Amino acid sequence: MGRYVARRLLQMIPVFLGSTLLVFLMMYALPGDPVRALAGEQAVDQAQIAQVKKDLGLDLPIWQQYWNYLSGLFQGDFGTQIATQRPVADVIADAFPITVRLALFAFAFTVIVGISMGVFAGLKADTLRDRGLLVLTLLLISVPSFVLGFLAQYFFAHELGWVEPNVSAVAASQELILPAVVLGSLSLAYVARLTRTSVAENLRSDYMRTAVAKGLPKRRIIGVHLMRNSMIPVVTFLGTDIGTLMGGAVVTEGIFNVQGVGYNVFQALKSREGSTVVGIVTLIVVVYLVSSLIVDLLYAVLDPRIRYA
Amino acid sequence: MPEALETPVKDATQPGSVPAAESKPEKARSLWSDAWHDLRRNPLFVISAILIVFLLTMAAFPGLFTSADPRHADLANHYLQKPKWGNFFAPDWFGYDVQGRSIYARVIYGARASIAVGVIVTVLVTIVGTVTGMLAGYFGGWIDTLLSRITDIFFGVPFILGAMVVLTSFEERHVYVVILALAFLGWTQIARVARGSVITIKQADYVMAAKALGASTTRILLRHILPNAMAPVIVVATIALGGYISAEATLSFLGIGLAEPTVSWGVDISSGQEQLRNAAFVLIIPSIMVSITVLAFIMLGDAVRNALDPKLR
Hints:
The complex is a heterodimer of chains A (about 300) and B (about 325). Chain A has about 300 residues and is mostly helical. Chain A has helices at about 1-30, 35-40, 45-55, 60-75, 90-125, 130-140, 145-160, 175-200, 205-215, 220-255, 260-270, 275-300. Chain A has twelve helices and no strands. The termini of chain A are close together. Chain B starts with 8 loop residues before the first helix and ends in a 5-residue tail after the last helix.
């Protein structure tokens, strides 16, 4: 087990470096210029621009910029925003907890509601309630999440007045419930469908017949025998889900005006603040890598036949 | 070639009871013709196929559906005029947007951009993903390690966020820029599926036989591996197509995908959000179009998967 974790952590290093390099290149090697963007529409002296670039190290070759960025990163220095002179680490420290909370709420909603719905439908496959769930999940998958967000905002905030349309800067937990439900709804549909298929399939298996024949109580048959075996494909999906939720938060945060990571990335992209964008995307990549490792380790808990040497 | 993958399940369940003459045509059916046989009887498939043909016609010949010009703005008469639900196919059927343009005409003409993005991204992604996955799966060793790590790297970058980063670099965002940005980050899922599928298939007897007969690597890859590995790839690609249409709309909504004067559902949803409170239909009608299109492709993908993978039934 220990050796397996160590090997996986080692394998993460090239992926981590590659992903950050990719984002770095997308940000800096493509056209668009933060120093020009700083000046806005005004005419600026070319020499002045060159001087600012030299001060910021933006005139160096791209690989050297990347090296400087990486070595800073390992000392906890995410760089400084060019326009506001604010350290990127501060921006992240403010925004990250909000998005993490949003993503965790969405994740909890996905797991609890999605799995319950899937089990509910899978236990009675091909009945009316199963068909109903299939239609519901198809609808959730096909309506883009920003449309869902607008509709939720329109009904719950403008029509019914249950919540404020915009989340305040503090982003109190109860304010994040509606955005989290919107954010999690797509994953919810996938989790429900995966659970349903898996439960319906495992119901027909031999060990289920044995468990029933032994006269075990229904709660134990479903709770232990059926669930444990049916969760493996669902857990695989959930492993990449936290990363996806954090990335997808850009859209939800935009609609509900949540001042999290997505909001900051969006602002930074507009002013071409490379260090902010790269820093935040890097962190999301780390979250994704770590959560998929945790999931792989969870396999062994669910299925003891899987052993990690 | 496809005989090797036929599903003998149906025949095996009733040994001897079926007269030989009757069981023969059953046996000869390949995976694909078997799937086609199932699909034609699946209402989900029929509905989605009709919807898709309809949408493709709309994208190819928008003039068939309306004579109104989607860019013609008539502020004086039509500013945010409510839909007239009884006036079928008339320019005011779905009302007018804030600039007095016919929403019906814009919805019809918007199909082209959205569907073009979806279809072309899917084609590009399928080509890149299949080639990468096939090479990694077939050759194994360091080629597999290298290609798989590259796939992991691209997979790790969040999709919408990554596409945003790419797209903000371009001043002029034509349809092809959006297509390239989505394809650039989207191919990894197909590559993973193709790799897994090829690894299973390369151990099949017919591949061994082809090798023993001295077939070249190219021939084995193109004639034996590729056709048999495509089933899961096609399923994933069909379902992903809906996702790309949705992604285009999302990016346009964020103001970094397609932009005016391109007519697209995403652009219209984006401009409709300002009128959400006094004229929700401006946002809702193009949203419904996006949803129907995505739904059609997902239903198609579902139906194809059920037909190709009898285990899921």
